Amino acid sequence: MRAFSRKKGAGFLLSAAALLLAGGALAFYLIWGSAKYAVNPAAAGFLAGGLVLNIVGLFFRCGYLTAAMTGLYGAAMMKVAADNAGSFADAYQGIVMFGDPTQVGTVLTICGLMLAAAVLSIASGFSEGHE
Asked: Virtual CA dihedral for 67, 68, 74, 76, nearest 10 degrees?
């Protein structure tokens, strides 16, 4: 692992970490959402699009690519959070009316992974040595 990290710059490593987190978020979202019949194709598409741009960004450094990738990760996160607003409301009110309050922790975990991927992709855009 050390030999790999010495050959690559910090920007590359941050971008690779963002790729891993976003890939994990997509897998977690699809597995959880399939079980709950809650997969939104737009959210999955945004996240998958961000992953594709992230993979391309590992080989070609471009600020616009980083911005688009970050935007897609953020859009996916907001879509998942908005789709589950009823669950957040129910958890806050202590009732079961609009969603499933027991799923709030899972939704927050998925959104947290997406947010971490977005933050790492932003940091990779500002890092040197992305080659």
From this structure: -170
Give dist(CA 47, CA 89) in Å, integer.
Answer: 25
In tens, the pLDDT along 3-52 reads: 444 567 888 899 999 999 999 999 999 999 999 888 999 999 999 999 99
**How many angstroms separate the Cα of 70 from the Cα of each of 38, 45, 53, 103, 104?**
23, 14, 9, 26, 24
Residue type, 65: L
> What is the spatial distance between Cα 131 and Cα 92, in angstroms, rounded to a whole number?
47
Three-state SS string over 79-131 comes to HHHHHCHHHHHHHHHCCCCCCCHHHHHHHHHHHHHHHHHHHHHHHHHHCCCCC
Read off the pTM.
0.86
Inter-residue contact 120 to 57 (CB < 8 Å) = no
Among the listed residues 37, 19, 49, the one whose alpha carbon sits nearest the alpha carbon of residue 116: 19
Q: How far apart are CA 64 and CA 70, in angstroms?
A: 10
